Predict the 3D structure of the following.
Amino acid sequence: MSEQPAGWYPDPYAALPGTERWWDGGQWLAQTREAPQHQAAGHAPAAPAWAERSEPRPSGYAGAEAPRTADGGVRASWSARLGAWLIDLVPFVVLSLVLLGAFGYFDLMSRAVDGDESAMAEAEAMLAPGSGFGTGLTLAILVAHLLYNVGFHVATGQTPGKRLVGIRVRMVDEDRRPTPRAALVRWIVQQGGPQLLTAIPGVGLIASVFTIVDHLFPLWDKEGQAIHDKAARTLVVRAR
């Protein structure tokens, strides 16, 4: 389609018909729209508002510096990914505090502050490695994170944190939401696997280092993917 003039055309990447994508005369861009129901014959396709002006195009489109995917989508910046990850931690911090309070941890700490040494020893025992409460708390948070992460990615392609910063997860081969399998693999590599491995003596440190490398990986990867993205064949891009 290299000789086709710039304009709106049926989207070759759309999963269903009825969507048009902007062709700039040399490549497909990320700008899409719903196909008009009726279009006068011979009427030239309207350009996006930014294409009609002499001002620079939005960052990430043709001629801009933001890195793009093969089909024209704009890759999410590492800072946006980090921001989304930090926002998504908030519900689990709150859940942890609620569970700690429900099982009397803060009461024990209050007594310990007043000088009750037995209360301090009991509080420490609650969170000791291998303790029943500590193990149960870890598993509860892990299951909640699984449902949160996989559920939101399959349903909308975005966790609340990603929605707030304006990014989303899509498949590499097609601009569509992650499949349940891809979302699960992504979570296992990013969170579930490393979290479980940290409980194994001698392996926890390796799992922690892997988690750090995984989160930093998009900074030098040519496709902007983390290791968990590569395992699940997903990309993180700006939301339209």
